[in-house]
Write a structure and sequence with these properties.
mainly beta, elongated
Length: 176
């Protein structure tokens, strides 16, 4: 049986206080404050902040918990290709298992003494779900490597064919 309830804001969630018997579950709607993301010195704000998240908690038969975290967040900052504002939305749907005595692969780094660190889990999950580049649109053309013009505004932008620098000495020849 799964029970749903709304909890306003949570950094740490006391799993023991839920008093879940084996096989029971609970669904919680929380609000979590996420840290801004820093990509090589460029900071991207997370919106909305706090982010509404849903945590599904199930008590396993021999102790421990099966957890699921779901939310969507938007990063707000410059496009990595053209520097225009970018606001990509990322959906997160991750699971964790914490089974005492089950080995390292069955121990969640987010649970200590039956307290779930929701903020750390949400920050890590969002970081792993983000695309490799934060762009304003998937087909962003970026900036011209020669002059810095925004290629999205002028896709036909060009500087003509590049000359081979080995022939530059011929430019100094004068024919009379």
């Amino acid at each position: 049986m799964i029970y749903a309830c709304r909890v306003p804001a949570a950094d740490l969630l006391d799993l023991a206080s839920l008093r879940l018997p084996s096989g029971a579950g609970r669904q919680l709607d929380l609000e979590v404050r996420l840290a801004p993301y820093d990509f090589s010195g460029t900071v991207y704000a997370v919106e909305p902040n706090p982010v509404p998240v849903r945590v599904d908690i199930s008590r396993m038969t021999h102790g421990g918990y099966a957890l699921r975290l779901r939310f969507a967040a938007t990063l707000n900052g410059p496009c990595m290709r053209c520097l225009e504002p970018a606001t990509p939305q990322t959906s997160v749907d991750v699971r964790e298992i914490d089974q005492p005595g089950g080995g390292e692969e069955l121990q969640s780094p987010y649970i200590a003494d039956e307290e779930l660190d929701v903020v750390a889990w949400a920050n890590d999950a969002l970081g792993l779900a983000l695309p490799g580049q934060i762009v304003c649109k998937p087909d962003c053309l970026g900036l011209c490597a020669d002059c810095g013009a925004n290629l999205n505004e002028d896709p036909e932008h060009s500087h003509g064919p590049e000359r081979d620098p080995r022939w530059a000495a011929l430019d100094d020849l004068k024919f009379d």
